[in-house]
């Protein structure tokens, strides 16, 4: 049975007007990856599918199945046909594909994708560089085939089985895009719908595939969930060493600065509410899920604030170990309780 692990990237954080997310960058350790040779080709499934025509249908169908393998059938079944009766699906498949690619909404959306991604070499380069760092830290890791699709606003990045990384280009055409407005996507949800997030989100689903589920395992305490999310953020920060701190968690620059200035108050709030060591589903959603803000905190507090604190805890853990533990060992060999014990995380009170 094919395994699909996905991340919907339309769940993003609030966009603050007048704030440039990419105006600050914090360089982290950058190992030499010049000896790791790999190229990433963004296979344009979205364009290939739209080239179908009735006259050469069978020939094109065979070519697509050869080029994309089982992924072709997966896409058709989940994005084009949808639920259908059991039995021979050949007529259904043909009619559904032709209807899908001739639909005015899909055609318009594909036109927008083609406009914004006429040249995707920068995306290929960003992905290739990220995978080089990934291979450096995890030498035995497999680099998947990267396939671009029109997801009709369903998925921004996902994995199919273990050998295909899917990228929904329709979710990276830039905030304030007219297609997002016409689809009724709230302005604050458009914050991460830009091409700079493609490599970041791609590596997040790679992490989910290899090291953990896309969503936190319910049943652990809030603080354990925070640390587990922090491990993922730490992974991203070193796989994308030149990315701004804000991009790693998915914040604006202003939101990141707010968290940095209020780290002590955030930690004090969570402690005073006596929720860190309890297993409460709503608390986990409130502090570990994406959102425009964090309920109960000042207006400047972004959503998903537990992941940001989790990253600070993991950073403190690695500092306490003298960075003698590899990232791979930290992720696979240390659970949240061990990290918490060693980190002794206690942020200092801000002094102004």
Descriptive terms for the model:
352 residues; mainly alpha; five-stranded mixed β-sheet; 16 helices; 5 strands; 6% strand; disordered N terminus
Report the portion of residues in β strands: 5-15%
> Which ranges are low-confidence, i.e. pLDDT below 50, for 5 or more consecutive residues?
1-26
Identify the strand order in the major beta sheet: 1-4-5-3-2
Distance between the termini: 57 Å
Order of helices and strands: EEHHHHHHEEEHHHHHHHHHH
Query: Biggest β-sheet, characterized?
Result: 5 strands, mixed
> Would you tell me the structural class of the helices and strands?
mainly alpha
**How many helical stretches?**
16
Tell me the radius of gyration.
22 Å
Output mean pLDDT: 87
Strand segment tally: 5
The outline comes out as globular
User: Helicity range of the residues?
Assistant: 40-55%
